Amino acid sequence: MNFPCERISHSEEETKLIAEEFLSVLKPGDVVVLNGDLGTGKTFFIKKITEALGITKANSPTFAIVNEYESGQDTRIYHFDFYRINKVAELHDIGLEDYLADDEAITFIEWGELFPEVLPNKRYEIKIEEVSNEQRKFRFNKFT
Fold first, then answer.
1. Chain mean position to CA 134
2. What pLDDT score does 133 carry?
3. Are strands 136-143 and 5-9 parallel, antiparallel or unpaired?
4. Residue 61 pLDDT more than 70?
5. To the nearest 10°, the Cα dihedral for 64, 99, 95, 110?
6. Residues 85-134: tens digit of each pLDDT
7. Would you say 67 and 81 are in contact if contact means Cβ atoms under 8 Å apart?
């Protein structure tokens, strides 16, 4: 996968394949920011990545703010959801900087556009748009 790029999904199965393709470029220490309207599939996309790593219990951390997962492949995943955060201080209070500094984990952040000031300069960003009820457009960017 080269960046920037776009992928179109016409089904959940195609979204799974796009997630697996993206996973192939990820390594520990990477941060992935997912943006898009409610219901576009941010959590679903992350679930497909975690399932490819052998993690079956991934779910949205909307109320917990962050979920942590360990895969059988020695991969640690941090999964943040900024949707219910009201101010940056809340992110500092839960130790966001420590999570982002973990070079042995892959960090996913849903709704990162709400607090761009806390995002690391080096990151992947995925914008997901609903084209139709079944169709999604994924726009991938890499910032270094």
1. 20
2. 87
3. antiparallel
4. no
5. -40
6. 999 999 999 999 999 999 999 999 999 999 999 999 999 999 999 999 88
7. no
- The gap between the terminal CA atoms of the chain, to the nearest Å, is 16
Q: What is the pTM of this model?
A: 0.93
Report the C-alpha gap between 81 and 92 in whole angstroms: 14
What letters, b where the CB count within 10 A reaches 16 and e where it falls short, cover 86-113?
A: eeeeebeeeebeebbeeeebbbbbbbbe
The encoded tokens of residue 123 equal 């990151």
Q: Which two tokens stand for residue 37?
A: 């309207």
- Nearest-angstrom CA–CA distance, 28 and 102: 8
Q: Alpha-carbon distance 31 to 125, whole Å? A: 9
The C-alpha angle 72, 122, 98, rounded to 5 degrees, equals: 60
Sequence letter at residue 139: R
Partners of residue 129 on adjacent β-strands: 137
Other residues' Cβ atoms within 10 Å of the Cβ of residue 22: 21
Nearest of 37, 31, 44 to residue 80 by alpha carbon: 31
Sign of the Cα torsion 65, 110, 134, 132 reads positive
